[in-house]
Amino acid sequence: MKIIIGKNEPHDMITDAAAMSYIRLERKDLTDAQAVIELLKTGNLSVLNGAIIILAFDDMKPPEDDIKTIISILDSKPEKKIAIREFMDPREYLLSAMHKWKDATSHAYMKRFAESENKDLKECAELALKGKRARYE
Fold first, then answer.
1. Residue 71 is inside which H or E element, if any?
2. Distance (Å, whole) CA 96 – CA 103
3. Distance, CA of 46 to CA of 87 (rounded, Å)
4. What's the pLDDT tens digit per position in 44-89?
5. How far is it, in rounded angstroms, from Cα 9 to Cα 97?
6. Which residues contact 52 (CB under 8 A, 6 or more apart)?
């Protein structure tokens, strides 16, 4: 698993799944986002997606300081490195995870993307603000 993550392939579902598995094995509980943060610091798109999607899939709820760190890391990455428009964007998964989070940092992040020109991010943010994970709920 670490070998696959270490290759850091940018557009690879196996890498995505390895990142998700790594976090599930490393975390202490559903509030422990240290493995997520670790992967976000150096990950390419597939590692980023795997690291963020697990927050939504497993209903993780990191402490607000970790949420700030996750947002800061994603914000520091160039747009072309973290998103393929209309296909893959870890920020969509983060917004989906935030649908149950009630802290001020998450609320501000959701509001920020609710006003985005990116229609996919905007839709995810609007749904999260309504307490919905996805349009199918």
1. helix 64-76
2. 15
3. 12
4. 899 999 999 999 999 999 999 999 999 999 999 998 888 876 667 8
5. 24
6. 36, 40, 70, 74, 90, 91, 93, 94, 97
